[in-house]
Amino acid sequence: VLLTGSMKAKEKREAYAKIESGEVSIIIGTHALIQDSVNYKNLALVITDEQHRFGVRQRESIANKGSMPHIIVMSATPIPRTLAIIMYGDLDISIIDELPANRLPIKNCVVGTNYRPNAYKFIEQQVVQGRQAYIICPTVEFSEAIEGENVIDYCDTLKNIFPPYINIEYLHGKMKPAMKNEIMDRFAKNEIQILVSTTVVEVGVNVPNATVMMIENAERFGLAGLHQLRGRVGRGKYQSYCIFINASETKKASERLEILNHSNNGFEIANEDLKLRGPGDFFGVRQSGDMEFKLGDIYSDASILKTAADMVNRIEDGEIEVSDVEKQRLDEYIDKYIYSSGLNI
Question: Which of 111, 179, 205, 270 could form a disulfide with 201 if both were Cys (CB 3.0 to 4.6 A apart)?
Fold first, then answer.
């Protein structure tokens, strides 16, 4: 059964009943699956796709819906190995770091706003060859409070720039689901050649014929998000391109975007993103900032953290025995050096 927040009340009630009675064996849905009104008869397996789009408490709440269900979390956003060990130390980690066969590496460029005319000419050339393009803007509509390009006005501007045989439409999250689906279906059929969109196309969109991703105000997006957006092209046999438009003149913004310019490796990008933003509080609810370890540093002490995690696993697996004497020494050490110092562990 399918369960989403946009379903009608009657449809939801029918789905709730089937889920609670056990009439259905597999439930697929959105965040609606973790609402209080959903009761599972015997939840044994939870598979969370694009898990980074779920909050810390949300990921925890779905697991609490069953009696210690098996958990599989999946993400196309690479996580640095050190962080993965800390975040998912109780899970087995599998990494897929190869492209599917017959795909070419995406060619990147980071340019200023004065490059737009050249970018438009290049996009037009790609369209003439039968290809398609995404153009990403950070906002839906104009706002005096927020600087940056917006989808609605940008789409109108492009219609006056490109020849009339090139069909240009926009897409954003505030549109009704039926309208969004219609736009994406037409884009998939190449009835729309240029799609001006917000980040709603960041995941779950597969149009192999699209070969250009142009991101306006790229400095306003996180590296992981930009890498995800870039992944919307390069999904077919054609050479694909990603154009990052940097509207900022700051050195920091340029340095950040140059990381993407010189690498398509998501794991390298994730490491740099970690250094720039901080990992957040993975045992609480903060999604960025410094990880507040009291005795260690996640960057300089990465090897020690990994060794500690490996040792814990070996102890739990019975490969290493810890004697009562060693446990007592550890307790004494904690009392003397840790609790006496006032640190919270």
Answer: 205
